[in-house]
Write a structure and sequence with these properties.
CATH architecture of the largest domain: 3-Layer(aba) Sandwich
Low-confidence stretches: 218-262
Largest sheet: 7 strands, mixed
Number of strands: 10
Radius of gyration: 19 Å
CATH superfamily of the largest domain: P-loop containing nucleotide triphosphate hydrolases
Strand order of the largest sheet: 5-6-7-3-8-9-10
CATH topology of the largest domain: Rossmann fold
Order of helices and strands: EEEHEEHHHEHEHEEHHHE
Number of helices: 9
Helix content: 25-40%
CATH class of the largest domain: Alpha Beta
Oligomer: single chain
Length: 262
């Protein structure tokens, strides 16, 4: 196991953002975290990276594990003159050979002298991935890496991630907002809404009632109907490998409010 989170709880500003979350990533495995806005997805990534304090639980990493992180947004002033080559040497200088190799791996061979501010969204994501790959990470962590890209751009980026996994054997942990393209790229999907609602292979998770409750099947107000009272179909899903992480208090969500099934 490259990384293991055990019963981690995170409170921000007195609010419990993550509640007793346990998950892990194996070498060479692509794990995707899905969930509605505000469900704690980015906080989970920051927690396993050690960027936010834990109120409970622990995170264990394999000895000597190198991490590569692709953040959701790049906090650089777009008016700042900054070439791709210079960006790759922030904060640690890398050789021209290392930079060229990283750019080649993401299909951006000739981009070294281009200005960061002049790149398209998809090109910028590839450059940020190149920078994350410079340290030859054993685990790549990506926070909504395809946000703002169109569907062909998303598909191309996920294909690239799968290629990186094949070439390097690195594990991949990513947050995604896309429920369709991501499924083909993932070995395992975790549905998060402050706690883990369900997890398993893409096929199993997409059939789980917890997944349907979170993301809906075209019904308006699907998120408001999120609840823990399981119907019988959950038992059938569980037989195929989906795990129920909702705890024992099935009539309450994390806020303590009752939900009624219509």
């Amino acid at each position: 196991m490259l990384l293991q989170a055990q019963d981690i709880t995170v409170r921000l500003g007195g609010v419990e953002v993550l509640s007793r979350v346990s998950m892990g990533v194996e070498a060479g495995e692509i794990v995707t975290v899905l969930g509605p806005n505000g469900s704690g997805k980015s906080t989970l990534l920051r927690a396993v990276l050690g960027m936010v304090p834990l109120a409970g639980g622990q995170v264990t990493r394999a000895a000597g594990l190198r991490l590569g992180y692709v953040p959701q947004k790049l906090a650089i002033d777009p008016s700042l003159p900054l070439t791709v080559r210079r960006f790759l040497s922030l904060p640690h200088r890398v050789s021209d050979e290392e930079a060229a190799d990283a750019l080649a791996r993401v299909g951006m061979d000739a981009a070294g002298q281009r200005q960061i501010a002049a790149l398209s969204g998809g090109q910028l994501q590839r450059i940020m991935l190149a920078r994350a790959l410079l340290g030859n990470p054993g685990l790549l962590v990506l926070d909504e890496p395809t946000q703002g890209l169109d569907q062909p751009g998303e598909a191309a980026f996920y294909t690239l991630i799968a290629q990186v996994r094949r070439d390097t054997g690195a594990g991949v942990l990513m947050v995604s907002h896309d429920l369709h393209v991501v499924m083909a790229a993932s070995d395992r999907v975790i549905c998060l809404n402050h706690h883990i609602c369900c997890e398993g292979t893409p096929r199993v998770v997409s059939a789980a009632p917890e997944y349907r409750a979170l993301f809906g099947l075209g019904t308006q107000g699907a998120l408001a109907l999120y609840q823990h009272r399981h119907d019988h179909s959950h038992d059938e899903t569980a037989d195929h490998g989906a795990h129920d992480h909702t705890g024992h208090d099935h009539d309450h969500d994390h806020t303590g409010h009752h939900h009624h099934v219509g």
